[in-house]
Design a protein that fits this description.
mainly alpha
Amino acid sequence: MPGHSSVSRWEPAGDAQEAVMDGSGLSHRERRALTAIERALRTDPRFERAMTSGTRLFAQEPDPADRPPDGRRGVLGGVVCAVTAVALTLLPLAVATSEPALVAAFTFSYAATLAGLFLLVRRWCRRSG
C-alpha cells in the first residue's frame, strides 16, 4: 500500500519488544491486573504443582525419585495382568463348583487385582499431574 512502511506496526522493534517483556511497557492499571491474575493462579494447587514440578506443558528433567530402580520398570503392570488372568480363570471354576477354597482364591486374586489397578492409576495420575 502506498505510504506504508515495510515494517509491521503490530510488531515492536527489538528494544521495544524487550521493554514489553520485562513489564516496563505496561501501564499501572495493567500491572495491577497482571498481579491480581498471577495471585489468583498461585492459589490454584494444580497450577502451582504444574509450575513447580514440571508437566508436559512445562517440560523439565523428570524427577529420578519417581522412576522405579532399573529392572523394575513395568513389573507392576505385568503382575496386575497375571493376577487378573488368575482371577478370571478362578471365577467360573468357583461359581461352577462352589468349592470354598476356589471362592477364597478368587476373592484374594480379585482383591489383589483391584489393589494393583489402584496403584497403577495413582502412578499414572502423579505422572500426568
